């Protein structure tokens, strides 16, 4: 069946004392394998929450999430860890690199627990950081750091690549480079890539566009003609 | 999960450690301190005990010391030695005054034993000859080997006799297991304290019995252990009985020996008496003989005397006659002589007259002749004559011639008549006539003279004849007289001799009588003595035997006390110490995990399992913990015992400390430290890890700012500067941080307070006890109980040397209560002066001396038996009887348990007389020891103990303790430093971003410092003050644990100690702040603010 990722009536409610915040309400959608799916919405819409749930980083309050035939939402902690380890590559908005490790080591720390990793050096080279392997994050610029983060995610050879506003802190050119990288993963390597952004212009490159608004799915769009990122201007 | 050796994972872990090395080291240090302190202190007692145990085992210290008031013999030794499981060896000990070089000192000489109490030779060798010795290493050193110890002539005869030689050569320096304490004991010999011991081979003594037998049981029980005590008490009865038996035998022997001697003496006496009798009769016979002789002599003398007297009488008569004759002769002679003399005188006179006449005449004649008148006259006469003649011839009278002649004649005649008219011629004729007369007279005289002379001659002849008769009569008389004289003389001689002989006789008689009397006296005395001795034999006291176990050995017993003190301190204090360390450690780890929240999230997001992540942090704290535990254990168990031993070296100097390894202690401390460090880590990790990665990556929502209570007091609040407000808000906002810092600091301060408090409680008891409670200087022991008269006498004699002298009766009893038995000293006296020398106080109030029927007891005893004023306290007065006494008052006393009462009370309740064999006295002069020496000289006094000596001992014990306390303080200080540093460090690292922000805002360096440190200081202050209260509690708790039999501690903390603790804490804080300033300054604004969250 086509649906690789499936959300079914997912609700996420945060409780902090008496304060109840409904981050997601009755979210349902599907993503097919090898697609680039872009999730758009304004700040605070619930995009990150959605991605976190999908990436096994957070639990849902109700509903179900499937990756292929596996019900992610039914996983226990251990299974979730394994899920994160093997199947997911996560790229954070604020990179979240290990400050004490070099670029290379930052990638290795992820790849060394994977069964079938891509060699760290190789992947770093492929993101264009071949000559920055031994620099610490503090010695790298924002874009470089983000690329290391991506390399880290990619090195795991995951089934699903989840990116939370990967270009949020980057300039136009660098951002485009990153996005190209991601696009190539999907196009060339058939990886399912889910990208969160609040930049609507990027939706052109997606195969599927999910719009979130106030914690609910506003619309799900399938893009028959995804455009290459090089051609997108904003 | 495969971890490659140089995996990024590993690298990350190590780099995390490296980059937070301060924290790592802090944890390491805290654990080292905590474990070190705990193990070090706890093990010290074991180490001390083991050291002594080894020493005691190595030198076969005796288990029992058997003493009998009758002395012990070789047979006794053999008897005991032959028992199963027992090794026995006899020993002799003598106290004597010795001369060493120029010094005079009192030494205790022991005989060397080879099976029990073997000597620890430090240098030199053991004696081989009898006149060699080995000496105390306390007072002698290696350079003294070869010198001699001489037995002073000041010793009494018994002492000098007991030692075979007068000089002993030092051949070695030793330690003895009998003397592990530096105190060398007391003695009856001058001065009362022994300076040092010396060991001499048995042959160097010349006594034929042993003063003690040392018994060693075959056992390997550890000293002071329950097993040892059980072993000892199991054998004690046996030994007691056996010793009594042996003593009984000896007693019998002595009695028999004495009886033998008495009967021998009796026999001797008889012989002597008989001899006396025979001698007496001999002498008497001799005397009688002599007397007979004397009587004979006397009679002879008397007869002779009679004879002489008769003779004398005869002679006297003859003499009388003679005398009469002599008288007559004398008279005649005298008459004759007188006559003669008269006659002669007459004659002489006449002669003289004649002569003078003649002379006169002659002279006159001469004159006349000279004058020529005569001539003239003559001429004239002649002329006349011639003229006349002429005339005559002239017949013519008228011739011219005639007329011429007549004229001539007339002229001549006229001239003549002129001349004659002058009378000269007449004169001259007269003179011539006179002369003729004179001549005639002369003739007459001559005739008379002749006649007289012939008469004289005749008379003289007669007289001469008479004389010669008389002379011969005289001669006879004289010879007779001489005879008589001789007779008298010889009679005198005879008398003298007689007298002399009589005198000799009388002397001899007297002497004989005297010596008889003496002999009789002596014999009587001897008889009496023999009778007395006979009686005495009956009175020979049953022997007193004593079985002393090791607890009577000062060194052994006080070592137990001292090691117990250390143990007491080690019971509670290290645990508290450890708790503080643990608290800070776990706080640190918890906060670290908190800090690493994001990183944990990332790792989780990357797919690292919980286990792996937990392992990462567990490794961090675990490695610090294990390493710290290991180092702490090693350093602690080495240096604590070493330091404490060095402190105690002042009073125990027999061997270097033996280190003990206690596996349980090591394990427990390892487990404990792992629990607090790793445990805390684990728990907080797990806590974090329960959350989803998303949560973790998301920074923790900062706690909502809240209004502080102080804000409701605008009066104060509005006056505060902004920064102050911020500080106050910060402090109260982060409650956990607040609590942890305060507790950590409080913990450290309380440790210092406790340590200082222990010092205060312990250090002053010596002064308190000897300056306010037992204020007297001497405890005088009398040989016998003193009567009222004796007391008065004694006081008078020593009135100058002693300002107070109170006689007391002392006893040692056991106080029975539900909790158990306690030993107690009883002092009973009716002398009101007791209140001058014993100060009874409770909480500053004076406690009056009890009335009849009541007693006052010391507080420790009261607390132990749970009794108060008005209750009755039960006392065991002998094996069977108990008596209950009402408590009239309770007083503070620090050394031993005491019960005071009046003499009447004692007699009434204890059923026995008050024997005043002791006196407490205070010195009236400056020289404490000179006075005590004078007191010892009294023959009523058995010994004098100077309280100052005890004071010095306890003082020394306290001094050693002081060192231990300083060690504790040092450790508490170190811990305090590490804790404060760590907490402040964390407080900074946690707020790096905040600090960076204010730096960015533009705070100057000092303002930034103030911002951070203000809070730190406030927290520290609160912690410090809290620590004071906590410290007081802890102190009480610890003091409760330090329980020594002999000493009561006054649980007190001086205000100065509180002050010191606070000041110290603040000093530490300031130092730490100084050190952290750099850290603050080094906060890189850009990086800190840039750091990802």
Main beta sheet of chain B: 6 strands, mixed, barrel
- What order do the strands of the largest sheet of chain A run in, or round the barrel if closed? 6-7-8-3-9-10
Helix content of chain A: 25-40%
Please report which band the strand proportion of chain B falls in: under 5%, 5-15%, 15-25%, 25-35%, 35-45% or over 45%. 5-15%
Mean residue pLDDT of chain B: 82
Q: Which structural category do the helix and sheet elements of chain A fall into?
A: alpha/beta
Find the biggest chain interface: A-B, 40 and 33 residues
* Record field, number of beta strands of chain A: 10
Q: Low-confidence spans of chain B: pLDDT under 50, at least 5 residues?
A: none
The best one-word shape of chain A is globular
How big is the Rg of chain B? Answer: 66 Å
Across the major sheet of chain B, the strand order is 3-4-9-6-8-7
Instruction: Characterize the biggest β-sheet of chain A.
Output: 6 strands, mixed
Strand share of the residues of chain A? 25-35%
Low-confidence stretches of chain A: none
- Mean pLDDT, all residues of chain A: 87
The end-to-end distance of chain A, rounded to whole angstroms, is 36 Å
The global form of chain B is: elongated
Number of strands of chain B: 22
Question: Overview of this structure, please?
Answer:
- The complex is a heterodimer of chains A (234) and B (1093).
- Chain A is an alpha/beta fold and 234 residues long.
- Chain A has six helices and ten strands, in the order E-E-E-H-E-E-H-E-H-H-H-E-H-E-E-E.
- Chain A has helices at residues 47-54, 77-86, 103-111, 120-126, 142-155, 172-189; strands at 3-16, 19-32, 36-40, 62-67, 70-71, 88-91, 160-164, 192-197, 208-213, 216-222.
- Chain A has a six-stranded mixed beta sheet with strand order 6-7-8-3-9-10, sandwiched between helices. Chain A has a four-stranded antiparallel beta sheet with strand order 2-1-4-5, covered by helices on one side.
- In chain A, a hairpin with a 2-residue loop joins strand 9 (208-213) and strand 10 (216-222).
- The mean pLDDT of chain A is 87.
- Chain B has 1093 residues and is α+β, with helices and mostly antiparallel strands.
- Chain B is built from 27 helices and 22 strands.
- In chain B, the strands form four sheets. In chain B, strands 3-4-9-6-8-7 form a six-stranded mixed β-barrel. Chain B has a six-stranded mixed β-barrel with strand order 13-14-20-17-19-18. In chain B, strands 2-10-1-11 form a four-stranded antiparallel beta sheet, covered by helices on one side.
- Chain A binds chain B through residues 16, 48-49, 52, 55-59, 77-78, 81-86, 88, 90, 92, 94-101, 105-106, 108-110, 112-114, 137-138, 152, 156, and chain B through 1-2, 4, 7-9, 11-12, 15-16, 19, 598-599, 601-602, 604-610, 692-695, 697, 701, 1087, 1090-1093.
């Amino acid at each position: 069946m086509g649906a690789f990722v499936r959300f079914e009536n997912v609700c996420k409610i945060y409780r902090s004392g008496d304060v109840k915040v409904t981050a997601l309400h009755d979210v349902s959608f599907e993503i097919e394998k090898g697609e680039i799916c872009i999730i758009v919405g304004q700040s605070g819409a619930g995009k990150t929450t959605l991605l976190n749930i999908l990436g096994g980083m957070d639990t849902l309050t109700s509903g179900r999430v499937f990756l292929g035939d596996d019900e992610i939402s039914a996983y226990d902690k251990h299974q979730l860890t394994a899920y994160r380890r093997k199947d997911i590559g996560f790229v954070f908005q604020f990179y979240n690199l290990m400050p004490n490790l070099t670029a290379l080591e930052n990638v290795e720390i992820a790849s060394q627990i994977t069964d079938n990793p891509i060699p760290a050096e190789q992947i770093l080279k492929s993101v264009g950081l071949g000559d920055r392997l031994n620099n610490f994050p503090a010695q790298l610029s924002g874009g470089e750091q983000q690329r290391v983060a991506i390399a880290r995610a990619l090195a795991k050879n995951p089934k699903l690549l989840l990116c939370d506003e990967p270009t949020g802190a980057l300039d136009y050119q660098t951002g485009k480079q990153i996005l190209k990288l991601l696009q190539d993963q999907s196009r060339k390597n058939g990886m399912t890539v889910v990208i969160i952004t609040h930049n609507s212009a990027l939706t052109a490159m997606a195969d599927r566009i999910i719009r979130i608004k106030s914690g609910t799915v506003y619309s799900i769009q399938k893009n028959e003609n995804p455009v290459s990122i090089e051609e997108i201007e904003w | 999960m495969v971890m490659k050796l140089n995996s990024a994972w590993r690298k990350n872990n190590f780099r995390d450690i490296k980059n937070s090395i301060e924290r790592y080291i802090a944890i390491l240090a805290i654990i080292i301190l905590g474990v070190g302190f705990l193990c070090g202190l706890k093990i010290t007692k074991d180490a001390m005990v083991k050291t002594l145990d080894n020493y005691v085992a190595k030198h076969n210290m005796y288990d029992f010391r058997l003493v009998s008031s009758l002395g012990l013999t070789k047979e006794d030794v053999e008897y005991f030695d032959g028992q199963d499981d027992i090794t026995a060896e006899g020993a002799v000990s003598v106290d004597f005054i010795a001369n060493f070089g120029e010094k005079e000192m009192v030494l205790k000489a022991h005989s060397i034993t080879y099976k029990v109490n073997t000597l620890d030779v430090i240098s030199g060798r053991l004696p081989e000859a009898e006149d060699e010795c080995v000496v105390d290493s306390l007072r002698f050193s290696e350079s003294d080997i070869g010198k001699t110890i001489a037995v002073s002539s000041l010793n009494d005869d018994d002492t000098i006799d007991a030692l075979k030689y007068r000089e002993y050569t030092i051949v070695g320096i030793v330690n003895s297991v009998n003397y592990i304490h530096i105190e060398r004991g007391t003695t009856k010999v001058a001065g009362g304290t022994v300076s040092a011991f010396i060991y001499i081979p048995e042959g160097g003594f010349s006594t034929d019995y042993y003063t003690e037998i040392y018994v060693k049981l075959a056992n390997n029980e550890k000293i002071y252990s329950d097993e040892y005590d059980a072993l000892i008490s199991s054998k004690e009865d046996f030994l007691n009985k056996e010793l009594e038996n042996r003593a009984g035998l000896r007693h019998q022997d002595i009695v028999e020996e004495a009886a033998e001697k008495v009967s021998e003496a009796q026999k001797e006496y008889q012989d002597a008496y008989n001899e006396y009798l025979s001698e007496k009769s001999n002498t008497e016979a001799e005397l009688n003989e002599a007397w007979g002789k004397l009587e004979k002599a006397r009679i002879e003398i008397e007869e002779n005397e009679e004879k002489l007297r008769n003779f004398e009488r005869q002679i006297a008569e003859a003499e009388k006659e003679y005398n009469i004759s002599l008288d007559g002769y004398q008279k005649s002679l005298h008459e004759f002589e007188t006559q003669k003399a008269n006659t002669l005188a007459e004659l002489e006179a006449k002669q003289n007259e004649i002569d003078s006449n003649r002379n006169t005449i002659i002279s006159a004649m001469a004159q006349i002749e000279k004058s020529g008148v005569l001539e003239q006259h003559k001429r004239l006469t002649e002329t006349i004559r011639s003229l006349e003649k002429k005339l005559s011839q002239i017949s013519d009278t008228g011739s011219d011639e005639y007329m011429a002649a007549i004229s001539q004649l007339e002229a001549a005649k006229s001239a003549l008549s002129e001349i004659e008219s002058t009378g000269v011629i007449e004169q001259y004729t007269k003179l011539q006539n006179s002369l003729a007369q004179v001549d005639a007279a002369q003739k007459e005289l001559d005739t008379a003279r002749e006649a007289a002379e012939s008469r004289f001659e005749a008379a003289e002849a007669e007289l001469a004849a008479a004389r010669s008769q008389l002379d011969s009569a005289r001669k006879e008389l004289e010879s007779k007289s001489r005879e008589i004289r001789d007779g008298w003389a010889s009679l005198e001689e005879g008398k003298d001799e007689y007298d002399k002989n009589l005198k000799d006789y009388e002397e001899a008689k007297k002497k004989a009588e005297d010596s008889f009397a003496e002999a009789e006296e002596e014999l009587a005395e001897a008889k009496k003595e023999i009778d007395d001795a006979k009686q005495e034999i009956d009175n020979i006291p049953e022997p007193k035997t004593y079985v002393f176990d090791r607890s009577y050995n000062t060194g052994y017993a006080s070592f137990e006390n001292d090691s117990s003190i250390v143990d007491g301190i080690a019971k509670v204090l290290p645990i508290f110490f450890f708790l503080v360390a643990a608290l800070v450690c776990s706080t640190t780890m918890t906060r670290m995990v908190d800090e690493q929240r994001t990183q944990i999230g990332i790792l989780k997001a990357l797919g690292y399992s919980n286990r792996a992540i937990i392992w990462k942090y567990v490794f961090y704290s675990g490695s610090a913990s294990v390493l710290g535990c290991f180092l702490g254990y090693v350093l602690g168990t080495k240096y604590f015992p070493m330091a404490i031993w060095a402190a105690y070296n002042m009073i125990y100097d027999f061997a270097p400390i033996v280190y003990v390894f206690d596996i349980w202690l090591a394990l427990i401390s390892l487990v404990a430290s792992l629990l607090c460090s790793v445990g805390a880590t684990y728990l907080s990790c797990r806590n974090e890890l329960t959350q989803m990665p998303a949560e973790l990556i998301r920074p923790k929502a900062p706690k909502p700012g809240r209004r502080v209570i102080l804000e409701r007091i605008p009066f104060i609040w509005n006056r505060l500067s902004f920064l102050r407000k911020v500080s106050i808000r910060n402090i109260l906002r982060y409650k956990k941080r607040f609590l942890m810092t305060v507790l950590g600091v409080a913990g450290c301060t309380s440790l210092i307070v406790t340590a200082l408090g222990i010092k205060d409680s312990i250090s002053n008891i010596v002064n308190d006890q000897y300056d306010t409670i037992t204020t007297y200087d001497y405890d005088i022991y009398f040989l016998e109980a003193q009567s009222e008269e004796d007391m008065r006498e004694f006081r008078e004699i020593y009135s100058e040397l002693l300002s107070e002298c109170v006689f007391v009766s002392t006893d040692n009893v056991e106080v029975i209560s539900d909790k158990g038995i306690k030993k107690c000293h009883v002092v009973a006296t009716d002398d009101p002066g007791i209140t001058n020398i014993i100060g009874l106080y409770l909480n500053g109030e004076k406690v009056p001396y009890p009335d009849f029927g009541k007693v006052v007891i010391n507080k420790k005893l009261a607390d132990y038996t749970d009794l108060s004023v008005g209750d009755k306290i039960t006392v065991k007065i002998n094996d069977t009887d108990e008596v209950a006494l009402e408590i009239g008052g309770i007083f503070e006393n620090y050394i031993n348990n005491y019960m005071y009462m009046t003499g009447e009370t004692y007699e009434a309740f204890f059923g026995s007389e008050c024997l005043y064999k002791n006196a407490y006295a205070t010195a009236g002069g400056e020289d404490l020891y000179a006075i005590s020496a004078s007191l010892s000289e009294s023959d009523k006094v058995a010994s004098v103990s100077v309280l100052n000596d005890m004071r010095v001992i306890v003082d020394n014990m306290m001094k050693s303790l002081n060192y231990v306390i300083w060690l504790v303080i040092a450790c508490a200080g170190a811990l305090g430093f590490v804790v404060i540093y760590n907490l402040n460090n964390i407080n900074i690292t946690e707020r790096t971003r905040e600090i960076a922000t204010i730096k960015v805002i533009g705070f100057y360096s000092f303002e930034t410092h103030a911002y951070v440190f203000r809070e730190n200081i406030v927290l520290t202050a609160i912690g410090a003050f809290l620590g004071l209260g906590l410290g007081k509690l802890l102190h009480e708790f610890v003091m409760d644990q330090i329980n020594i039999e002999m000493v009561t501690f006054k649980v007190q903390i001086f205000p100065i100690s509180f002050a010191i603790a606070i000041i110290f804490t603040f000093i530490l804080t300031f130092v730490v702040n100084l050190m952290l300033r750099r850290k603050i300054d080094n906060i890189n604004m850009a990086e800190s603010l840039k750091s990802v969250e």
